[in-house]
Write a structure and sequence with these properties.
With 369 residues, this protein is α+β, with helices and mostly antiparallel strands. It has nine helices and 20 strands. The strands form four sheets. An eight-stranded mixed β-sheet has the order 6-7-5-15-16-17-14-18, sandwiched between helices. A hairpin with a 2-residue loop joins strand 15 and strand 16.
Length: 369
């Protein structure tokens, strides 16, 4: 292992917090930098579903997400699961025959890969799992029992709090204006909007939707998708359902003791048509009430349109950029699932120089000219 480095982690949502926590616990000097407060960016406005069942496009990506799920379980053991870790499984069904065939085909594939899958009918789900659902009795429902949801803001707060208690520094409410390099092209300094300049050996770009801008500060082109999503929180006197679920036209999950989160790809498609967020929230709420009638008594509490941090080809960009020694990226969609495993693997790479094969398909150099 190299001597501990002074590392600037730019962006303190789940990926930045995970990398910084892993670095700090291994003796590195960490400076967290964020324009807002830890965990209150895209992490707080994601669906926060820990899974690999939706990651079958490439086997190596599926394997990375399975490792992410395992890393969450290990992390819950290391820092305690309370207030952030909810491994209650995930239900999925649809009312479209073509989508239903695809759902069952995917479940069969996942089963062949050794992923735990359980099959139910709607009637069995109502009887044994979620009695509040309005779901046809004969519809096939897939349960992925090892999946979970995470309270992202609480997890980030726990990780950053532990790192700071171990000596890490937190710079909130400021942005990076410049990244300085030496004559050999390696990272030397980070200049902040508050006028301060930090001497650093390493920069980790975990800036989420702003990652392309941060990369541009070292003249690197990091192509990103423009993919907005709308998430609504609704307040409930008591939670009528207890698991993450993908129902027809709507995604629903708990969000603590008196709140639920709603999302829909169909509603996301309306963002660029000019619909106001308040109207998008009403559409989400209406869709949710069809699936969980008790939500008719709930109220819309918060809505946000956020941009997902997705590299252009849809896969993570994680690791060193060889042309700029000391510069690393941790940029990915599904950060909630992948945060703990990316944090561990990237911290090890920064401190030891060893590149883990699990990240081989997701290296930043694939975007180099």
């Amino acid at each position: 292992m190299k001597r501990p480095e002074r590392v600037a982690v730019i962006g303190v949502d789940i990926l930045g917090a995970s990398v910084g926590w892993n670095l700090s616990r291994r003796g590195a000097q960490v400076v967290f930098i964020d324009a807002g407060r830890p965990g209150e960016g895209v992490t707080n406005w994601s669906f926060s579903w820990v899974n690999a069942s939706n990651k079958t496009a490439r086997k190596s990506y599926f394997d990375l997400n399975v490792a992410g799920m395992a890393a969450h379980r290990e992390l819950a053991g290391a820092i305690g699961p309370d207030s952030w870790w909810y491994p209650s499984g995930h239900l999925r069904w649809t009312d479209d025959p073509a989508a239903q065939a695809k759902l069952l085909e995917t479940a069969e594939l996942l089963d062949s890969w050794g992923y735990r899958v359980e099959a139910y009918t709607g009637a069995e789900v109502r009887r044994h799992l979620e009695p509040a659902l309005a779901i046809p009795g004969e519809v096939p429902v897939v349960l992925y029992p090892d999946e979970a949801w995470v309270h992202g803001r609480h997890l980030v707060g726990r990780l950053v709090g532990q790192a700071v208690a171990s000596g890490a520094e937190l710079r909130s409410g400021t942005v990076v204006r410049d990244i300085g390099t030496g004559a050999d092209g390696s990272i030397r300094t980070v200049a902040l909007a508050d006028g301060s300049r930090l001497d650093v050996d390493v920069v980790v770009n975990a800036a989420g939707p702003s990652a392309s801008h941060v990369a541009g500060l070292i003249a690197r082109h990091l192509p990103m998708r423009r993919e907005p999503g709308v998430v609504t929180r609704i307040g409930c006197a008591q939670l009528p359902v207890h698991r993450v679920m993908h129902a027809p036209h709507i995604e629903i999950r708990p969000d603590g003791d008196a709140s639920m989160v709603l999302h829909s790809r169909e509603i996301d498609a309306l963002i660029d048509t000019g619909e106001e967020p308040a109207q998008l929230a009403r559409l989400l709420h209406e869709s949710a009430r069809h699936v969980v009638p008790e939500l008719g008594n709930s109220r819309i509490a918060q809505t946000r349109v956020a941009f997902r941090p997705i590299p252009a080809d849809g896969f993570p960009s994680v690791g060193a950029v060889p042309s700029v020694p000391g510069y690393y990226e941790a940029v990915s969609h599904s950060g909630i699932t992948l945060g703990p495993v990316i944090g561990r693997l990237l911290a090890s790479e920064i401190l030891s120089g060893r590149r883990d094969e699990m990240l081989a398909d997701f290296r930043p150099e694939r975007f180099l000219p």
